[in-house]
Amino acid sequence: MSAVADRLYARRRFKNWLALLLSGAATIFGLFWLVWILWTTVSYGVNNLNLALFTQMTPPPGDTGGMLNAFFGSALMSLLAIALGTPVGIAAGTYLAEYANYRKVGTVIRFVNDILLSAPSIVLGLFVYTIVVAQMGHFSALAGAIALAFIVLPVVVRTTDEMLRLVPPQMREAALSLGVPQWKVTTQVLYRASMSGILTGVLLALARISGETAPLLFTALNNQYWTTDLLSPMANVPVVIFQYALSPYEAWQSLGWAGAFIMTLFVLLLSVVARFVLLRNKTGNN
């Protein structure tokens, strides 16, 4: 009996060791490519950083310049997308958590939202091209912002839904027992308790749309000049990087690497801030 138990114990130890070895190897394999990509981006990007990158416009072919108009265009379209997608996302997430939490319609909406969350961004860009760009007859920054807003929307819906459902039901019951209307409970009690989590979702959505290229190729396209007209094509960092990386001009390729490095830093900063806000929220709840 003891020999059988020893063999069984040895077999379980071998399986545990094998699973640990394979999972560790998979982790190292994934991290290797991630570190390689980051190292390449940083090494090429840092070498091409200079003041002109932030003070000059995108240059004509073969010339030197910067990406000031592209940074402005990306910031403007991203902020407009956040302004369009966040209120709708928070309202939809509130409906799911507070009014349709245990109803069949809530399950259906969450399923559709998950599909939209995982939909390829190029499909969303093609959709906005059909309903906006094709109708207007030209590319525009407004169409780009709408395409990015469709990416922001499911992220904010999911985050708001989950954060509101994490609020203890006793808080709702205590407020309702005092005769407070449902809408006041939601806006003055539940939103305050889950504000950090919702803000984290908005920051993660902003980090995601900052590097999106495919939807902007179908909507905002590019512009070599400075413009604040939302109804005209507008320069943006992802498309400029894409076009410069494919060009045969060394000056354009250098600008592309510098732009990629700045975007990587920006997304990293947003991710760190989002994690910090979420960690502070968890610590406060504990």
From TrEMBL:
Domain ABC transmembrane type-1 spans what residues?
71-274
What is the superkingdom listed in this entry's lineage? Bacteria
Q: Which InterPro entries match?
A: MetI-like, MetI-like_sf, Phosphate_PstA, Phosphate_transprt_permease
Lineage here is: Bacteria, Pseudomonadati, Pseudomonadota, Gammaproteobacteria, Lysobacterales
What Gene3D superfamilies does the database record attribute to this sequence?
Answer: MetI-like
Q: Per its record, how is this protein called by name?
A: Phosphate transport system permease protein PstA
Q: What SUPFAM superfamilies is this protein classified in?
A: MetI-like
- What keywords appear on the UniProt entry? Cell membrane, Membrane, Phosphate transport, Transmembrane, Transmembrane helix, Transport
Per the record, the similarity remark reads: Belongs to the binding-protein-dependent transport system permease family. CysTW subfamily.
Record membrane topology? Multi-pass membrane protein
Spell out where the chain crosses the membrane.
Answer: 17-39, 70-96, 108-132, 138-157, 189-209, 255-278
For this protein, the record's Pfam families field holds: BPD_transp_1
Please list which residues make up the signal peptide: none
| UniProt KW Transport keyword | yes
Provide the protein's localization.
Cell inner membrane; Cell membrane
